[in-house]
From TrEMBL:
UniProt entry tagged with the keyword NADP: no
GO molecular function: beta-glucosidase activity
Location of the active site: 378
Protein keywords: Glycosidase, Hydrolase
Any single biological process term in GO: carbohydrate catabolic process
UniProt similarity note: Belongs to the glycosyl hydrolase 1 family.
Protein name (database record): Glycoside hydrolase family 1 protein
UniProt cross-references to InterPro entries, sorted A to Z: GH (IPR017853), GH_1_N_CS (IPR033132), Glyco_hydro_1 (IPR001360), Glyco_hydro_1_AS (IPR018120)
Matching NCBIfam families: PRK09593.1 (NF007158)
UniProt source species: Vagococcus allomyrinae
PROSITE patterns found in the cross-reference section: GLYCOSYL_HYDROL_F1_1 (PS00572), GLYCOSYL_HYDROL_F1_2 (PS00653)
Amino acid sequence: MNGNKFPDGFLWGGATAANQLEGAFDVDGKGLSVADAMPGGKGRFAALGSADFDWSIDESKYTYPNHKGIDHYHRYKEDIALFAEMGFKSYRFSIAWTRIFPLGTEDTPNEAGLAFYEAIVDECLSYGIEPVITISHYEMPLHLAKEFGGWQDRRLVGFYEKFAETVLNRLGQKVTYWMTFNEINSAFHFPALSQGIVPATGGNNKQIIFQAFHHQFLASSLAVKIAKKVNPQIKMGCMIIYGTSYAWDTNPKNQQANLELNQEMNFFCADVQVRGEYPAYTQRIYNKYGFDSIEMEAGDLALLKEFPVEYIGFSYYMSSVVNATDPEAAKAMGNLLSGVKNPFLEASEWGWQIDPAGLRIALNELYGRYEVPLFIVENGLGAIDEVDEDFYVADDYRIDYLRSHIDEMANAIADGVDLIGYTPWGCIDLVSASTGEMSKRYGFIYVDLDDNIEGTGNRYKKKSFDWYQKVIATNGEDLA
């Protein structure tokens, strides 16, 4: 494309999550989170999905890379300076709930935690970087998961409301862009991360998952309500995982299966949070999974309607293919999205199918459905990076991945989509959410740590660092 591809003020930047890079898991009054109980290694999801997993921390059996992370807690100034050198216009990060309320049930917040995040905000602002905050990103207090069964308990609405009110009151005059929950719809397939529910506490029961969704929706609307009182200029968004999905063929059974997957995974949570009401297909979903309804109280639906979110933040890594007619079809690997293999696509080292055109489709589908601003807050390529003797990584494969996706973003903007920003995932190497590994790297900045968090921890610029610096400097005009 020629001409002005991206609007003035486009929020180029990068994204991280507290539990994956901060470390210092027991420092300055921080309590234990569900992330602190997630073991490292490729068996992480299997452990969390086992029937006997009870959120215990067993260091004789597992490693816990999140406990140390990349020590961003002590090195945030160094990291943000590197982000500023790249030219970031925005930086998406999250607040560790347990730094503010260690158990989640306290009346008084932990001042050390609030001071830490205010320092991060101030550091960003000193470089002209717009902070973009996720209130809760896969790190609810472990106490709330163990004692209350996570978000299936309505009392968590009140605990989250206090948490949101506390951080909004502290930071709401300085930070415009917020999101309530990270990838809230991921719980449809794996509720351990965002809902704190494992099989032992109902994680295989769809009625419990949808009840938990309802409580999260209420909490999200309360956060919007609080934000508007604190500062009317605040923009509160939701955040979903989005995977463009294709039917395998023109067989009506596969078309219907694809429709249902899109409704359940891609649209349900956004329908409620953006439109402020449950969609017409809700009852069909309930019936499909063998229950009639969930519990609601008077005033719940009115709250959802009055305080919807104002924009959609979403992650996009891969697309999927639905084949309901051939149970023997070759499966594709994935994180929380999989499906069958698409013969037209290549895949990453972790089997994720790389589909830049699917991002343009996703943007058009979301904007056509909701007509609210969109913000791509995660996108990137997890890969094994090889360093030379100077710790330099020639990651042309990452540059190619990002370039192709940015091209499709420009096409979507030309289609008429209102896209406000792009923060690729893991702008600095950090612990993977899906595998608990450092070796699955996404960043523009290499961190000298292995899967056991051993190494110097020093930061080194990859080839993609200079490339992304140029992309931002030219507002997406120069992608060479």
